[in-house]
Specification:
Elements: H1 3-8, E1 12-17, H2 24-37, E2 41-46, H3 60-70, E3 77-79, H4 92-103, E4 109-114, H5 115-119, E5 135-139, H6 151-160, H7 166-170, E6 176-178, H8 188-196, H9 207-216
Parallel strand pairs: 1-2, 1-4, 2-3, 4-5, 5-6
Helix pairs in contact: 3-9
Length: about 230
C-alpha cells in the first residue's frame, strides 16, 4: 500500500477549542471516541480569538503549552498551532478549508464538536459549508437537548446523520456521527472558578497542566472569595 493510499483510508479528526485550560472533559471523551470509530490521530486546534466566546484568560502561548503538556506521551494526539498565529477571529470553516487543501480531496476528515455546539451550529460563520469539507462527530454533553432548535435544522441533521462509523472513513466528508462517549460534567469555566476560589482542581485536569498553571500564576484565587 502506498502512503497516499494509506492516507485516503485514514480518518483524521480535528478538535478545536479555547482550551482555557484543557481538561479531562476534553481528553477522555475523545480517547473513548478514538476506540469507538477507530481513530488513529486527533489534532487539537487551540483557537486565538473565539468569535462567540469571551476572550481567554490565559495567553495564546500559555494555552498552547497546556495543550502540549496535556497530551505528552499520548500518541493519539498532536497539536496544531496555526489558529494561535492569527490576530483575527478563528473561523472554523476557514481553517478546515485550508486543511482540506493540504490533505487533498480524498482524505477523510472529521471535526469533533460537542452537542452544545451542534445546537448552535447555525450561528457559526458559513456553517452550511462545513459538511462540504469534513464530517462532524458529535460528543454528548450533560444537560443539552438531543434535537435541534427548528424543524428545518433537524431535517438537515437527519439527512446527514449516519449510524455506521465506518462510513466516515469511506467518504472524505459530508456525514454527521453521534458518538457514544461518556458524559463528563467538566468545564473550563468550572476550573477557573475553582481556582479563583482557591479550591482544588486535581480531579479535573492532568497533573502536568495543573503544575504549569501554578507555575504561571494562572486563574489565581481572589482573596475576597475566601472571606
Amino acid at each position: 500500500m502506498t502512503s497516499s493510499t494509506k492516507d485516503e483510508n485514514t480518518l483524521m479528526a480535528l478538535f478545536g477549542g479555547t482550551f482555557d485550560p484543557v481538561h479531562f472533559g476534553h481528553l477522555r471523551p475523545v480517547e473513548q471516541l478514538a476506540h469507538e470509530i477507530d481513530l488513529e490521530k486527533v489534532i487539537l486546534l487551540p483557537n486565538n480569538v473565539p468569535p462567540h466566546r469571551p476572550q481567554p484568560e490565559a495567553t495564546a502561548a500559555q494555552r498552547l503549552k497546556m495543550a502540549q503538556l496535556a497530551i505528552e506521551g499520548n500518541p493519539l494526539f498532536s497539536v496544531d498551532s496555526r489558529e494561535l498565529q492569527r490576530d483575527t477571529p478563528s473561523y472554523t470553516i476557514e481553517t478546515l478549508e485550508t486543511l482540506r487543501k493540504e490533505r487533498g480531496n480524498r482524505q477523510p476528515l472529521a471535526f469533533i464538536i460537542g452537542q452544545d455546539s451542534l445546537l448552535t451550529l447555525y450561528k457559526w460563520h458559513r456553517w452550511e459549508a462545513l459538511l462540504d469539507v469534513c464530517h462532524l462527530v458529535v460528543l454528548g454533553r450533560p444537560g443539552y437537548a438531543r434535537e435541534l432548535t427548528t424543524p428545518e435544522l433537524q431535517r438537515w441533521y437527519e439527512a446527514h446523520k449516519r449510524e455506521d462509523a465506518r462510513q466516515l472513513r469511506e467518504h472524505p466528508h459530508g456525514f454527521i456521527y453521534q458518538a457514544n462517549t461518556p458524559l463528563l460534567d467538566i468545564s473550563a469555566t468550572e476550573i477557573r472558578t475553582r481556582r479563583h476560589e482557591g479550591r482544588d482542581c486535581s480531579d479535573l485536569l492532568p497533573s502536568a497542566v495543573e503544575r504549569y498553571i501554578d507555575s504561571q500564576g494562572l486563574y489565581v484565587a481572589n482573596p475576597l472569595s475566601r472571606e
